[in-house]
């Protein structure tokens, strides 16, 4: 119990330090707006979107579980980190900055995830079938 | 634990779905907590290596030579790994956002406020950090001080969160903890499949980006902002000679001036005639990418000594570039006296190219790339 209060107290102190550093910035309200925006975009956009996908597939009788869900998590995470180079506007400081063919790589990884998930699910089904026959 | 969802309207369908429970929150949360702890520790370290306060400047160690490369590579790797973890964690606890009544007591209000700060700071840090590595700055504030301030806010809110949730964390720590056992047993395989998916996502984002700093993974580098193989003389560049305003004419009449009790100047040919050393040291950018290279040049400590700098002196280095946040660089004693620290004239067996700092640049062990001053014009015993 005492530990919990000590950790919470230290946490509050560090939050205070962070807050103090923040208000010394030229326009802390703008930063606060961006912070609030981060929550709004996640809780109001990203999370509902994920839930809508699950609800939609559910409505078509597909329950997103196991391998298909894992594949979507991997594909979604890869897409999330591919978005900055794909959407970044304007030129770069020099040709060694953001130098890859990110669109090609994104398509490649999406295909690889689908293939890996298909192979995994297929192998598992085949093994299960073989076990049942013996 | 089922969520006491009493939404005024129909609750969204999938909230009936499983796994929005404290076992999932704990299992994902501990990896997320680890990732953020690593980010915080390596980030604070980087801050002090980049902007040391006076009392620290002469104490910063120049070894291990790969130290900064390792910690800053890890900073970006753990930050990217935290992206799938944060999304999974927030998915698991999302129904709690709609807890009803929204505020039960003062304590509950404070608790929710601290959670709001935690989520805001967590999402913000990962978002701005990732975009910064791509040199994309769509926000109206300067990245470094804000990212730094928020890291303290985030780690503090995380400690508060852990203290508040401690009873639940403890009772869901293992598969056989009492809280976990109280959850529907049929969720077990489903949860393990979910966690395996999250683990696979962490593996995927790590493997496709870590190659920008981990040489062995270079071929898998698909989404990182840099490819260590792309660049003049086999090394990426941040600031080109053109961007720095260093022209061919400025370089033509170049002399190195060394200030101290016995000041002197040297031409490039005179520098080439001094004892040359070859070292293998990395360029390790604050943005996370890094690469080893072979550098040849004169030891900084030899140059300082000739100007009358004793064995305990540091250095002040000035670049030819007319402006820039890092035009003047201070070098603590440990760096200046390290035999690996060179005023380099050659890179990977060739004369330095303009973008790598021709005619002469600093290369020192265990230092962020922005402090490896290019186009050096003046060295001063400090
Ligand atoms: C930056 C890191 C983290 C973020 C952003 C985060 C976020 C959240 C949020 C938003 C909630 C819901 C709070 C509520 O309204 O009750 C929550 C709950 C919870 N978190 Fe975290 N968390 C983090 C780290 C951790 C860690 C490291 C652990 C433990 C190892 C953890 C364990 C839990 C538990 C057990 C719950 C309660 C879930 C339930 O009752 O169903 N969290 N977290």
Structure write-up:
The complex is a heterodimer of chains A (134) and B (382). Chain A contains four helices and no strands. By secondary structure, chain A is mainly alpha-helical. Chain A has two domains: 25-63; 66-134. The radius of gyration of chain A is 23 Å and the shape is extended. The model of chain A has no long low-confidence stretch (mean pLDDT 94). In chain B, the strands form two sheets. In chain B, strands 2-1-10-5-6 form a five-stranded mixed sheet. In chain B, strands 3, 4, 7, 8 and 9 form a five-stranded antiparallel sheet that branches. The N and C termini of chain B lie far apart (64 Å). Classes of the chains: A mainly alpha (134), B alpha+beta (382). The structure holds protoporphyrin IX containing FE. Protoporphyrin IX containing FE (HEM) is lined by residues 1, 21-22, 25-26, 29-30, 32-33, 36, 89, 93, 96, 115, 118-119, 122, 158, 161, 165, 168-169 of chain B.
Number of strands of chain A: 0
Number of helices, where a helix is a run of at least 4 consecutive DSSP H or I residues of chain A: 4
| Continuous helix count of chain B | 12
Low-pLDDT residue spans of chain B: 1-14
Q: Which cofactor or ligand species appear?
A: protoporphyrin IX containing FE
Strand composition percent of chain B: 5-15%
Structural class determined from secondary elements of chain A: mainly alpha
Please compute the radius of gyration of chain A using only Cα atoms.
23 Å
